[in-house]
Amino acid sequence: MSDLVVAQLLPALNNGGVERGTVEVANYIAAGGNTSLVISAGGTMCLQLFDGVEHISLNIGKKSPFSYFLIHKLKTLFIDKKVDVVHCRSRFPAWLAYLAIKKIKGKKPLFITTIHGLYTVKRYSSIMARGDIVIAVSQTAADYIQKNYPKDLKSKPIIIHRGIDPNKFTYGFEPDVLWLQKWYEKHHQLVGHQMVLLPGRLTRLKGAKDLLPWLKSTDNDAKLVLTADPGHDMFAARLYYWFKQQGVEHRVHWVEIQHDIAPLYAIADVVVSASTRPESFGRTVIEALAIGTPVVGYNHGGVGEILGEIFEQGKVEVGNCQQLAQRINQFLTSKPKVKNKQPYLLENMLSQTHKLYQDALNAN
Question: Would residue 170 count as lying in a domain?
């Protein structure tokens, strides 16, 4: 099908896993000679969209009475652009798209949702189960939606795992000398220290405070590296002062969000995933393991799934901060070998998503 028209909807295109997945699918659809649309409020990742992708700027993520007027705009847009597939990855845009499609008379576009998160269970979240097809990014996400919204599902969710590009996250990857020189000039406090990396945007659920027993242990002088800036991030600022109150601020080093994170995974001795609530997937875990860096993570949700598949020895009991500390120190003392095994590939995710679109339209 060479004339497939796909519109993906999400609040904005700033940094994040959902945003990255949207860009990857949009570019893949366009590269295949199809019409690829992305509807969002915009953001820095718009620059990553191929020339063949059309970005339509609408503030569909803002919960406001005025957003009701966007329903008519979306309806008109879907008709004018002859959209075949409306693919939503977030709840509020999904509600707007769902209501817009209901207003279309005659042939309607397929309404597809992807479960990227384990949302609070309430009617508002049920929209993600109302797709003509529902995609789950993991078995954890599929189980969540089937358990909590069985009456809203039209059929069993289809699992399409997120995936990484092995050209960007290559096994055994090492940063070049120039990168290393610039890095250690900027972060000279890390010279001579082992590094434990907690990557991603910091939130209360990220579990940074669970690392306190490790930070207070005297088995090593490794540094905890956090990808956030306390000078521009309110939560990071509060966490900075909390570490100071605990007397461990000398063990914590802050770096800004890394848009090219592969080199940082490569120089880290251990990567940690300590989210206190289960995650639907765990992209940072597969990225680090793909390079060959060991990961210590709580054994729940998508992270537990990934570790069970690729790196069993990295799993620790959820909330067991002492076990977390011990496992990190164990890996710092004797770095385990991560096998060159990567079942979660970007090409698989893209081809499976494209095939799903085509099969669904052919069956419709």
Answer: no
pLDDT attached to residue 4: 94
pLDDT value of position 1: 42
Asked if 95 and 35 sit in the same domain, the reply is yes
Does pTM surpass 0.85? yes
Question: Which domain does 40 fall in, by range?
Answer: 5-163+345-363
Which residues of the chain, if any, have pLDDT below 70?
Answer: 1-2
Q: What is the CATH number of the domain that holds 247?
A: 3.40.50.2000
- Of 298, 344, 297, 276, residue with least CA distance to 17: 344
